[in-house]
Specification:
There is one protein chain. By secondary structure, this protein is of the alpha+beta class. It has a domain of 66 residues: Immunoglobulin-like, CATH 2.60.40.1080. The chain contains 1 helix and 7 strands; from the N terminus they run αβββββββ. The protein has a 4-stranded mixed β-sheet with strand order 1-7-6-3, with no helix packed on it. It has a 3-stranded antiparallel β-sheet with strand order 2-5-4, with no helix packed on it. Strand 4 and strand 5 form a beta hairpin. The longest helix is centred in the first third of the chain and has 22 residues. The chain is globular. The protein starts with a helix and ends in a 17-residue tail after the last strand.
């Protein structure tokens, strides 16, 4: 086979994997208001953007929403030193703001 044929095969294989990779990045979404907390369980945790949210390093892995924005947070399920990592997309909104994608409340008289 020529190198051109090998390149075409490699591109076809990569294209076939793209939907599977995209599906792997779909995480459960947690929407919190600024200042709110939510325990996600598991042990320890990490958030990508610490200006948006933090997470405790104890067995309750509690997320605290700090400012409006979006970040990924995760904790280990299965105890310290083992288990799998559960990832969440954390969306922080201003207090009283509708979550992204939420329907607006009906206007009076409409």
């Amino acid at each position: 086979m020529t190198s051109c044929h090998l390149c075409a095969l490699a591109l076809a294989a990569a294209a076939a994997l793209t939907p599977a990779l995209a599906a792997a990045e779909e995480y459960p979404t947690l929407t919190l208001e600024v200042g709110a907390t939510r325990s996600i369980g598991g042990y320890g945790g990490v958030c990508d953007d610490l200006a948006v949210a933090t997470i405790t390093q104890d067995v309750n892995a509690t997320i605290r929403a700090l400012r409006a924005g979006t970040t990924l947070c995760s904790s280990r399920v299965g105890g310290p030193g083992g288990g799998i990592r559960q990832v969440y997309r954390v969306v922080v909104v201003e207090a009283g703001a509708a979550p992204p994608g939420a329907a607006s409340p009906p206007r009076p008289g409409s």
